[in-house]
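User: Working on a comparison across species. This one is Trehalose 2-sulfotransferase from Rhodococcus pseudokoreensis. Can you predict its structure so I can line it up against the others?
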Amino acid sequence: MSEPRSYLVCASQRSGSTLLVESLRATTVAGNPEEFFQYLPSTSRSPQPRQWFESVTDETVLSLLAPLEPGTADTRTAEQWRDQLLNLGRTPNGVWGGKLMWNQVPLVLDRAAGLPDRSGDDLRSALDDILDRDLVLIHVFRRDVVAQAVSMWRAVQTQVWRDDATPPAPHDGAEYHADGIAHLVRILRDQDVQWRNWFETEDLDHIDISFDDLVAAPQATAAKVLVELGLDADLAPPPPLKRQSDGRSKEWVERYRSEAAANGLPL
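Assistant: Here's the predicted structure for Trehalose 2-sulfotransferase from Rhodococcus pseudokoreensis:
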């Protein structure tokens, strides 16, 4: 067997990528894949609900989102940030794992700009300068972007992004709003287009993993990825997370599709 390789999961929010990376983490030999690039230097926090809607002025949407909370500025140098990221993401066998969403690309470019001896100023150069140049790229995507946006719309309201044990409560406080969902449909669809364009423009080999495959066969899908990383497929664990989607989500998806068709909202 060849030497195991490090990897970067390239995804968008609510695409199923968390299920994949938690399955890989559970092997204890496939890195410790976190979303290392999500934290804003100004707050040391990931984007808060209202920051996803900065261009929205509709108060009926904004009123459903929690107010912004202050954070603490990240004072690490670019080199300190990189060294910590590399250390935290590795398992003892040297495999590093991480996850990057397209909306986080500007943060990657900004951090990499502070590194010495840069190889270039584009995303590929930034990843080369921060991470292993022999990374396996894994593209996780969700064909049903409306269902993806509904899932995210519920998450930005409840601020519950994952579920390790129980399904979501039937009345979790989230409220349906077609314009809120439409805003996220546009963002999520654009993210996937940007990833696909980047792979094509840079002529990058990558593994495509669909949400449908992850949900239908999470253990087999993780096993497929392990093989590509040069690791033992038999280490793939049973799914460590439960799906958060429920009947309420399905109702919202159907309702949105109907309203989108009538009102010209994005699908």
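For your comparison, note: The longest helix spans residues 178-201.

User: Helpful, thanks.
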